[in-house]
Fold:
Amino acid sequence: MTKINENEDAHEFRSEAVSLWRITFGPLIWAVHFAASYAATALICAKGGAVEGLRLGIGIGTGVALVAIAWLGWQAWRQWDLLCDRDWENDQGTGEDRHQFLGHAAFLLAVVSFIGVSYVALPALLIGTCR
Amino acid sequence: MTRPAPLPVAEGPYPPTEEMLSEPVSSEDQDRGKAELRAAWKTPQGWRYISAVNNTEVGVWYSLTAFGFMLLAGLLALAMRVQLAFPDMTFLDADRFNQFFTMHGSAMMFLFAVPMFEAISILLLPAFLGARDMPFPRLSAYGYWCFLIGGCFVMGSLLFDAGPKAGWFMYPPLATEEEGIGPDIWLLGLSFIEVASIAAAVELIVGALKCRPPGMRVNIMPLYAWYVMVVGGMILFAFPPLIAGDFLFELQRSFDWPFFDPERGGDPILWQHLFWIFGHPEVYIVFLPSIAIAAMIVPTVARRPIVGYSWIVLSAVGTGFLSFGLWVHHMFTTGLPQISLGFFSAASEAVVIPTGIQLFAFVATLMVGRVRMSLPMLWIAGALAIFVAGGLTGVMLAIVPFNWQAHDTYFIVAHLHYTLFGGMVFPVIAGVYYFYPFIAKKLLSERLGRWAFWLIFTGFNVTFLPMHLTGLMGMPRRIFTYPESSGWGTLNLISTIGAFVVAAGFAVFLYDLLRPKSRQGQIPRNPWDAGTLEFSHDVPEEAWGVRSVPYVTSRYPLWDQPKLVERMDAGRYYLTDSPDHQRETIVTSVIDAKPIYVQRVTGPAWITIWAAIFTGGAFIFPTFHIYKPAIVCGAFAIVCVLYWLWTSTARPPKDEMREAGLGLRLPTYMSGPDSVGWWGMWITMLGDATAFASIVFGFFFYWTARPDFPPADADHAIGVWVAAAALLGVLAWAATVLAREVNRRGNVMLARLALVLAPLSAAAAAGAAWLAVRDLDPVSHVYPAILWALMVWLVVHLCAGIVMQCYCLAGSLFGKVTPRHDADLRNVTLYWHFVALKVLVTAAVLGLVPGWLP
Structure:
């Protein structure tokens, strides 16, 4: 019989303290990238400025965002640990399944965020002017 | 001075072993527990019934009220369809037609779709989670009464021919110039309801995070709870921009501050931005919780766990984020730069991915399951068919050139009704059929249900499918009639006939819902063989929610934990009694749902109704430009809320620990991040900070959009006073933090001293902020107007902060706040962290930014 205040997976628990936030880090990067691209475009197009510089800036920002999301995705993939136990569902009420589930969700969100960032960068790649 | 002992924490065995769970409970103990719980949760009888706050009562009132407003808004639509049936009809005149379409859209969105989500969630979420009630029942009741008053006020304007008529999005300059009080009714009435929506969102998020039963970790909680969390979060970030917009808009309507007047430096496009930053997430706010109902029904119908639980979590969270990158696709024709349009077009296409994934997950579940077709599933099937059609036209509309063609035509009307019927109306009706046995302990009629389905489904398609064509033929939205030569007559007549078929379907549904069902007898407890906790409900009804709060180890506990219901009934789990006849529920940790403490929840009260009436007065009187009674009402509303908080929340308990069952002893008081009150404050302040950010966004928007912002010869805020406001505001914050820290260490006198200093300093900060802009004329140009708006916003928050500091001081003097029981003080400090941030940002925008702008 375990006592409620003696935590056998105390170490693991601490590492999970921010996990519910962590699954949103991928979409958060998307949001920051989106807002920054939109704000920079609005500024440059309204105040006049080099559209080429803007496109380059968005390109660099996109590269940084994609690398960051890819890194998060890789971390989440390791946390999901699919290849070791082949567990797709993680539907048990255990600390391990909760840990891997959060990895799985964060991984999938990283994939969607990666696609989202790539999509949002396309207009800057394809359209050369503000008008 | 000795440091006071810390609050006790949970102790005893956890998780419970199989042995402990199979330990029988004596029948005397069972009977005693039942009697105590019945006494604690007794629903008020007779006319006192309306003072009830229990989620099962408030949820039902809320749903029925929202449904009533939906029927009214539907009647408006029928009247419009009659007017449009033939060319040159004179059934409605142009003015009334304008009022009707404005109220149809506004009511469907603000009085039906969003409140319905909140109503259903308040009603069902505790049951999904095996909780006794929501964490803040009186807040739900207060929200409901605000909603009822505000809704009746806004809808009632039609009876006096005084309704708003500028369209549900109230675009300036049309709406700012409109004669009469219509726009004021819209702005103030709906702001009032938006406040209620945010209150409900706070409650639902805290409920899903903190009120899960022991053992229900995040990976096994019902999908509905995931959706509630996502949607609650979206409300917090989507509604505040609209509230900020309403604030600016009403300042222009009432005091002629020119936020949207281009003559004096304003810009109507800012309203469009603020409205659609709210408006587009809004459609996902109504879509996601409805599709969440499908996520509960589909596994039951397929008789197997959902396929791709993680994928659905992904799609809920992903849609929640991406939906904030779509708002400009309502503004493609406003002349924004092409690249900007491209961003929003791209994001609009990207959101299809998570949206599609959840539909595929449902289809996959149905394919691998052993489907037993039932009435709820029929409605879900109809929903999927209609929603997919609406989604596809959405993909078309996300493409800029096509959008330019279809903008403001009936093609849009067709698209939005396909998404809203498929994404909201059908799943919600499916939910009504599915959850009716839980809600009313009766079943709805299978035969009438099929009739209603086929009438609504057929009628819907007959109405809206032709509208795609009417739109492509060029018929614009919001026209009250059209000439015969346009050639739109036949299609419009078909649409009108369809609308009446839909209405017939709703009549059948309404009859089935409300007809007496006393001859039906007692229904089975779990009529659909569902696997989730809500169907462990008591038949006949008991007001206590659950007999005992279970220990859950599976996503579908009724399927996977065979003895669960029997053990819940026998009181073998947690909180099986209530010795003090107090309403209580168990609060657990966010990730792993480990029991933390027993939260006392509030019971029936009249004060919530009074608070709502006075809040209503504070919003409704200004509509008629009557301000003194409004201020009095506002003051009374604050007094009511303070009274309710003082008498029934966070009071030091009589016993510090409570036997919670299965040998577990739990504390009865918590302070800081473990307590639900702290989470409520934190989440509210996120929303509040978003509203503030929207006003700051307005400042920078004017700067990018207008060459004359700030005007070259403009007077600026007075630097000395701005600096004084910043310093004094930070001092007030520091004093509050100091009070919390020294109070915790046992130095009560110093804490009280800090709590005297803090409000004085905050009041001085408010005065300095006012002095900084006093000499500027907000009517002359948008630059002084936005500085004034920022000042007003800051001063209001400082004043609220002063009230809170005085509340804590009084608490300390009268023994409500002690060194150990400092929940109030910690929540107020959290509030002040946000105020300090606002002080600094406001001071920077008032004092520094104008000098930096090129």
